[in-house]
Write a structure and sequence with these properties.
Layout (H helix, E strand, L loop, with lengths): L2 E4 L2 E4 L2 E5 L3 H11 L4 E6 L21 E3 L41 E10 L3 H16 L8 E3 L14 H24 L8 E10 L11 E14 L11 H8 L2 E3 L7 E5 L4 E4 L1 E5 L7 E4 L6 H15 L3 H15 L3 H7 L4 H4 L7 H9 L2 H4 L8 H16 L6 E4 L3 H16 L2 E14 L2 E9 L5 E6 L3 E4 L3 H10 L6 H8 L14 E2 L2 E7 L8 E5 L6 E5 L16 E7 L18 H15 L13 E4 L3 E3 L5 E4 L3 E2 L32 E3 L13 H20 L24 H12 L5 H4 L5 H6 L16
Parallel strand pairs: 3-4, 3-19, 4-16, 7-8, 13-22, 19-29
Antiparallel strand pairs: 1-2, 5-9, 6-9, 8-9, 10-11, 12-15, 13-14, 16-17, 17-18, 20-28, 21-24, 21-25, 22-23, 23-24, 26-27
Helix pairs in contact: 1-12, 1-16, 2-3, 4-16
Amino acid sequence: MAQDKTQGTTRAKRQVVIFGAGITGLTAAHELIERGFEVEVYEPEPPSLYDYSEKCAVGGMARTQWARVDRPPWPGADEGVPPPPPGILSTQPLPADVERFLDPELEGGLHRITFEVDSDELDERAKGQLAALAAQLKDHPELKKIEIRGYTYELGTGPVFSEAADRIDVRRARAVKEHLESILKKEPQQQLPQLTVAGLGLAYRDDWTRTDKDRCYVDFHTVEDWIPGEHGFRFFPTFYRNLRDTMGRTPISSDEKVFNESGRTVLDNLVETTLQGIRLEPPRPSYILPREPITSKQKAFELLRDTLAASGFHFSDQALLGVKLFKYWTSCKQRRQQYESMSWWDFVEGDRYSAAFQKYLDQTPQALVAMTAKECDARTQGSITTQIFLDQFTKGRLTDATLNGPTSGAWFVHWRHYLRSQGVIFYRGELKGFEILDDKTLWAKVDFYDKDQNTRRELLVRDYYVVALPIEAIRKLVDQEKGLHGEDFTAIRKMDLGEVTEAKPQGALQHLSGIQYYFRSELKLLPGHVIYADSDWGLSSIFQTQFWKTRRGWWDGYRGLLTVGIGNWYKPSRRTGKSAWETSRDEIAVEVWEQIKDSLSGIDPTTVPEPILYHLDDNILFKPQGPPCGNKTRILINHPGTFQDRPGKLARPSHSPDEPLYQVHYGRLVLAGTYMKTYFRLTTMEAANESARHAVNAILREDSEKDGGFRGDRCSIADPEDHEFDDLKFFIELDEQLFKENLPHFVDILDLSELPNAWLSRNPDLSAFGLPAGIA
């Protein structure tokens, strides 16, 4: 072990292995490396060709899915596409002797792969490489053709070049071009990819220190459109306190190779959004909600008035919901624990609202995490709703934000660079199980991947292990390893994850995925997120490029980008009668766009162009030419009564800073992820970050009890329920006393839920509330 000289003594650095390089794993690595631990991160997913020089991917389901985009199936979409045409991002390995060059500064658009061939070996070696490349491209039957743009050559200057050499080299370049053309002529029936050979050419390096042979080379360029696909749009509200803290402690380097802090952090890459749109289908008008603090009672009144006028909702709906929210805001934590056993629909008495408001109330949460008010427990949705309202009524800054570029380029590239500069080592490897020796000893079995996808298994002997894998991966591992015992493993084995089938799953995991549409011109429409409340598939969206620091150009193949979240994969479309789960990839692209256009019908049609490209979340798996058959990134929903069955322990309301939270199994293994108990409760990036902090605190507590163990601060953890309306503390304390006496909440004692109807009646009777009848 490495030696760490701290506190006047010398101690061995503790070694920690983290399995999973998603937000949970990266957060754990961040907190541990800054506390003097040695950290290794193992991730099974390979890097994209965009960051091909790295050993593994980072970012988990949130990372950018750099890929060749799909052409939309609607007529006329291919007309007028700006040059150059899209190419293919091959998933097949390139020849071993091919050197690839990609510009990491570009956030989309054209990237060049260069084949360098020595001129003396041009005829045979170049032909061999082109033949091997053509053979690989046959594995992509969905693509149509190879386009040859011709060849070019350049002559250097100086006496060393002769006309004879020029003629010889030009003949060689022509021979290569002719050989490639002959491959196509012999096999016209092959469905080869749309590969652009930008140049088959000869050039002389103008460097007098090199020999004639060294200065002669030929480049073969494949020009590709790299489109930044995403699992979904990145949404950063103000109440992501833990995540924003980590981003604010992730400096951005001014140099790509050597880490040199620029004075900026990843938090500076967040761009605030000021509005949220609620799109309704005609004849109901859509409306806009300001996502910024309301600074006066007059503005609050005007917002309520305008919202009611635009939405068509009755004031009694808003009043009743207001009473229910007041009850939640003034409930103590002990009473809120009881709310975990009921749905949000039952808590707010959803059956008492108008039909239009019931639909809005139940379906709008789908835009957050594919949940409805009838499916999610009241404490989870109540807590998030509280935070959303808190942003509107406090004197903070603007509330919501998004990234100023594709997620990986604006966030994960800088995060990995910083962690590596601190000493974190990244590997491409997969946790395959554990070697369990006894109750105090266990080692990890890991498969390492090489560049050819071959594996070798090793036994990792380390001080601590953090398993930060998705729930389905950890469930498979726990079921396989029958010898793993402990409360967390028992809870994981009991979790009902449901099945990925055409019928709506009854388990805890649901679907929420994204689709991106690309346009020839930039679109803004609204500087914020939009919820399509009447859409069949629970859609929400944001026009992203308006927030990006790098402007789009013709070289990107697109200028505008709309990212749409699909929150309901099981409700049939009114247009087709089929759900998204019953629909092919192209059909999903068409149907989602049609549902959005239905809600945009009030906008001048000349300002809304048709998309030219689309990209659907890579994590959705499809049958050949058919509907989906799987989803690699399902998310966990808190059904009523299920939260307490999750693995992990949370401190009691009166806990001390040293009280252990998550359990360290076998003295060295701790679990982390959004499926664990967190204060945030909702499956989000914030919960992923918080869970990692709990796991790290568990390790710090465990290590502090050892000789020469850790001494220092634990990870700070923000509980959203500790950040609510300060003006309501008196009522919360009152409810604590009522709860101790086993009495109902004072809203129920006073029957305040009946106040809106009584107040709005023609002759209100308010005697039940201690007021004389007839007072209006």
